[in-house]
Amino acid sequence: MLVIVIDSIQAANNKRFQSSSLRRDQDFENIGGRKRNVFGANNLENRLEANFVAAIVYVGPCCDYKDVALSNQLKVHCTATVISPNYILTTAVCLVQHIAKNPSHFYVIFDLNPLEKWRNFAVNNNGNFLARRIINHKVHGKYTTTDPYKYNLALIQLDKPINLTTPIVAETPLPYISHYRPYCKEYSEVDYTDVYMNHCFFYGYGPNRYDNTTHRTGILKRFHLPLLNSRYCRYFDATFDLKSNLCAGHKRVTNKDEKFKGFIGGDFGGPLVCTVINVRNFKDVSKRLVVGIASMSALVTLPDHSLRLFDYFSSTRFFRDWIEDLSDRNRL
């Protein structure tokens, strides 16, 4: 059984994937010279639905941003999820590979189309949007570059708090960062019995097949992505960690000509948000939970040689203590 890790930011010299049945594949669908996933996700038209999502954008060194803004260097490197007024959550892989060396070259921008807003600001010196700088960051203590999808989480501290009590934000409260019940270390796998597994949505800034070829990556999208039973994913992928990860996807065979789906570029760090059990109104976002943070996609070859796509998320429930201990107490 073969598992292909379809991750555009995975280090090519990862020894684990070279020495096991996991391997990296770079042959993503290429349209207009850009890698893109084939989610077919919907562009969001109402910012209220995703006030808890931000883009981490490379804007270049301070303070003349015009040249970068007019080039292909302007880019969303990853999605981030707001967990408190001062902190956002993303992947350790993205932070280590792209942001950590020069965090001052990045802005965290809260907008449906952050690149357009930043370009207008840098070139024309106008624009009305919410942006924050990065002043500190921390990857999980057990994260390693040799096994990057275990403990693949990072916290980022913003230079100024986000006002979560404004009327606009109050209309769409941030989803709970994890489940109501604390994680119990004796569990053999993540418990998600308090959410509707089929009523989950992924938010990310990665490009997909419906992007206009003139657009660069960086428009916030929403994609229906149901949770799968973790043991089902483990059956097909022996490397899947039942305790710290969640598995999502659609139970259908993936055709060869569309096999390169999954998280691309700006999608990493995006949240998977699920509706809680017994909710009266599915549109009530206060009854949704952030259950996972996008970590990797894997294309699995089944015994009959058909292909199945799984999307793996770092479980916010498993990492709840780490998240809350650092963010609540400002201990980065």
Write the layout of secondary structure elements.
Blueprint: E1 3-5, H1 15-18, E2 22-24, E3 30-31, E4 34-35, E5 42-43, E6 53-58, H2 66-69, E7 75-84, E8 87-90, H3 92-99, E9 106-110, H4 114-124, E10 130-139, E11 154-158, H5 167-171, E12 195-204, E13 221-224, H6 230-236, E14 245-248, E15 271-276, E16 288-301, E17 307-315, H7 320-328
Parallel strand pairs: 1-2
Antiparallel strand pairs: 1-16, 3-4, 5-13, 6-7, 6-9, 7-8, 8-11, 9-10, 10-11, 12-13, 12-15, 14-17, 15-16, 16-17
In short:
The protein is α+β, with helices and mostly antiparallel strands. Helices cover 14% and strands 30% of the residues. Keywords: Disulfide bond.
Q: What is the architecture at the second tier of CATH?
A: Beta Barrel
According to CATH, the fold-level topology is Thrombin, subunit H
Count the E strands.
17
Report the β-strand fraction as a percent range: 25-35%
Write the CATH homologous superfamily.
Trypsin-like serine proteases
The parts where pLDDT drops under 50 for at least 5 residues are 6-38, 178-187
From the helix content, strand content and strand pairing, which structural class follows? alpha+beta
